[in-house]
Design brief:
By secondary structure, the chain is of the alpha/beta class. It has a single domain, classed as 3-Layer(aba) Sandwich (Rossmann fold), CATH 3.40.50. Helices cover 47% and strands 16% of the residues. Helix 1 packs across helix 3 and helix 2 packs across helix 6.
Length: 137
């Protein structure tokens, strides 16, 4: 079975800025080993955080978005799903996975997402867990 992953904003930021295992997990999609999926809402949150928290210049934000768009499939969500009551912003990640029939949600969110374990058939895993799963399959 082909792995289909939604990467949350924290993983995308870590991959872009720090590298390491988050970048390796994202590179699996870049290389075509797995299918990567995102939505406009995740990309918007990423843009906002790159600008505000990491003071990226607009050209660098656009470059990062173009790069991600070159290998992540864009799916549409409605914003209607309500699952993570403790942090409603995480709902977009869950809804993106549901809309794309993803097999995995890749996240570093130890407070809200990782403890869920899975939702609607998508396993919720850390970047390290995802890399191990992808390389084993």
């Amino acid at each position: 079975m082909r792995l289909v992953a939604v990467y949350d904003t924290s993983v995308l930021i870590s991959a872009l800025i720090y590298g390491g295992v988050p970048r390796r997990s994202l590179d699996l999609a870049r290389e075509g080993t797995v299918d990567g999926v995102t939505c406009d809402e995740i990309l918007s949150e990423l843009s906002e955080k790159l600008r505000s928290r990491f003071t990226f210049a607009e050209a660098d934000v656009q470059s990062a978005l173009q790069d991600l768009s070159s290998f992540l499939q864009l799916t549409t969500i409605t914003g209607a799903l309500r699952v993570v009551t403790a942090d409603p912003k995480d709902d977009m990640v869950i809804e993106c996975a549901v809309a794309a029939s993803a097999t995995h949600i890749v996240t570093g969110d130890r407070r809200h997402l990782l403890p869920m374990g899975q939702y609607a058939g998508a396993q919720i895993v850390s970047p390290a867990q995802f890399v191990a799963l992808a390389l084993a399959s």
